[in-house]
Amino acid sequence: MPIDPSVAIGADLGTAEFSWNTSDVLLYQLALGAGADPLSARELRYATEKDTVVLPSFATVAQNFHATEPPKVSFPGIEIDLAKVVHGSQSVTAHRPLPTSGRATARTRIIDVHDKGKAAVIWQETEVVDEAGEPLWTSRSSIFARGEGGFGGDRGPSEKIELPDRAADAIVDVPTIGQQALIYRLCGDRNPLHSDPAFAKAAGFDAPILHGLCTYGIVAKAVTDAVLDGDAAKVGSWSAKFAGIMLPGETLRVRIWRADDRHLVTAESVERGAPVLSDAVFTAR
Question: Which residue range or ranges hold the Peroxisomal multifunctional enzyme type 2-like N-terminal domain (predicted)?
């Protein structure tokens, strides 16, 4: 059915209670490549139970970590074929350091729908509180639905971030492995776009691609390591737009610029020289 922004915008998608434990956190961070150097004390804090640190990007998987079915794009005023959908952008604001285990309640709503002509962009916001009702994190995300535009909605603003006219303050190369998407899907995203060659080809890709949120987490870790020496508890927020695909086995080149009280970030595939993340902003607490 066509998108009906009068129904979709502001729609309350309800609340969900969920929990997580240290094993979930460790699997998530291993799926991002943590522990590649098993002799590094910093890496072991991501990958073992000793003094475990939690990347705030864990917030993107915590609620649905144990899901085993592919996600559906079925909301009030919106019904879209999953094969037409790619992640557009993601942000997480950590209101305090994320605990290694806990119980929480999430409330999600659709905050906007933009009409890009040949595509639609759907924005969601999720507020998460702990058992005492205290804020844990806020996440915002957009999905890009090809062929679903033209419904007469607002095109939305351009939110491009201008990078400093100088060389990056830090450049970090992060290799991925061929099994990266197959490991990451165990964190709750079973979209066959990342594991089924036939589904990926039908969706217009030559091969299964890496989850956008996996790339998002890998880069979050790279910047946390470069800027905060791996002290994930000091991360305040992390936002990025998905500018292109990443293939498992490629290397990410992450560039970081310091700009006042924040860091501006880009990421690209080294092998293809193609952008993967853009308009990315990292802030410390």
Answer: 18-147
Residue 273: which residues within 8 A CB-CB, separation 6 or more?
A: none
| Average pLDDT value over all residues in the chain | 93
Catalytic site includes residue 169: no
Q: Check residue 84 and give its pLDDT.
A: 74
Helix-strand-coil split of the chain, %, nearest 5: 25, 35, 40
In terms of Cβ atoms closer than 10 Å to its own Cβ (0-12, 13-18, 19+), residue 160 is: exposed
What is residue 152's predicted lDDT score, i.e. its pLDDT?
75
pTM of the model: 0.92
Active-site residue among 24, 112, 189, 225? 189
Active site residue 211: no
Q: Please tell me the least confidently modeled range out of 1-15, 39-53, 66-80.
A: 66-80
Domains of the chain in sequence order? 5-284 (3.10.129.10)
- β-bridge partners, 18: 104
- Long-range contacts formed by 94-97: CB under 8 A, 24+ apart: 94/56, 94/59, 94/136, 94/137, 94/235, 94/236, 94/237, 94/285, 95/135, 95/136, 95/137, 95/138, 96/135, 96/136, 97/54, 97/232, 97/233
Q: What is the mean pLDDT of residues 224-249?
A: 97
φ/ψ region of 51 (left if φ > 0, alpha if ψ in -120 to 50, else beta) reads left
C-alpha–C-alpha distance, residues 223 and 216, integer Å? 11
Active-site entry in 87, 95, 114, 194: 194
